[in-house]
Design brief:
Layout (H helix, E strand, L loop, with lengths): L18 H25 L3 H5 L13 H7 L5 H5 L5 E3 L11 E3 L14 H5 L19 E4 L13 E4 L8 E2 L10 E2 L4 E4 L4 H4 L2 H10 L17 E5 L5 E5 L8 H5 L7 E4 L4 H5 L1
Antiparallel strand pairs: 1-2, 3-10, 4-7, 5-6, 8-9
Length: about 280
């Protein structure tokens, strides 16, 4: 007779890790988590690429987008000197461009209130090219009549009243009211037989008119734009069409003051006067 106890297999004791082994395992897991975090953070830059976001409207003097992103150090100097606070910083949804300056023309356009392109002068890296000396040399976009069916001029209509509602915070320098202080757009009353607000607010058109009247900005003839930026041309069957000329610099003033919603005229930031007329 065989003893049953002699057939029982020995019970395997659970492996007990010593302190040194446990610490090594914890370090490995921490390293793994850190690596995953770094990889995830680096992939954030691809978010706008994956979602197909449109490029941003950059401040005056901005280099080509790839050069701009490579050279901008996100210091915010251009933001601090803008008199109408047109320049803002992008957020994380801009991926690799996170923290770079841009302009939302519908909210606040660049109206060149500063005359001397202060944002360009403040840029320490040349991301806003120091070769840009005058507003008419800026090439940050090109306006287009994106929604002609909404344009009041195209319908042969005028405009009377205030351009935007009471909540609108946009500013514009109305030199005939105050040469030095930009004023709230919402506070201005207009009465136009045919809506031409995009034209009367165009900084290039304003400067061109001043020069033709013999009064260039700052008494400097170099400030005079060589070409017109926008004008109204008759439409067959009635109405007037806003037409964009080669003097357009893409400042966005026309988009900001367009009284219809959404704006009939917008800035295409993928184009500029050079690419359109080439």
């Amino acid at each position: 007779m065989t003893d049953d106890k002699s057939k029982e297999k020995p019970v395997k004791k659970p492996r007990v890790l010593d302190r040194k082994t446990q610490e090594a395992r914890r370090r490995f897991l921490r390293s793994l988590g850190l690596a995953a975090g770094v990889v995830s953070a680096s992939l954030v830059g691809f978010i706008p690429v994956v979602r197909g976001y449109n490029p941003r409207l950059r401040p005056p003097g901005a280099l080509a987008e790839d050069e701009f992103l490579a050279s901008c150090i996100k210091c915010g100097q251009c933001i601090q000197v803008c008199p109408v606070e047109a320049i803002k910083l992008t957020d994380i949804m801009d991926g690799f461009g996170n923290g770079t300056p841009h302009i939302d023309a519908r909210a606040q356009a660049c109206d060149f209130s500063c005359d001397g392109l202060q944002c360009v002068l403040a840029c320490p890296t040349g991301s806003l090219s120091h070769d840009t000396n005058y507003p008419h040399q800026v090439r940050i976009g090109f306006a287009e009549l994106a929604r002609p069916d909404l344009c009041l001029a195209m319908q042969g209509k005028g405009f009377k009243g205030r351009i935007r509602d009471a909540s609108f915070k946009g500013l514009f320098r109305y030199a005939e009211l105050n040469r030095w202080q930009p004023l709230p757009v919402r506070g201005q009353e207009f009465d136009r037989e045919i809506c031409d607000l995009c034209i009367v607010h165009c900084p290039i058109e304003i400067r061109r008119n001043q020069c033709e009247a013999g009064h260039p900005p700052a008494d400097d003839p170099n400030q005079c734009p060589p070409s017109r930026a926008i004008g109204l041309e008759p439409v067959e069957g009635g109405g007037m069409r806003p037409v964009i000329y080669e003097g357009c610099v893409g400042c966005g003033a026309c988009e900001m003051v367009c009284p219809v919603t959404p704006a009939a005229i917008v800035v295409d930031m993928t184009k500029n006067a050079d690419t359109v007329t080439a």
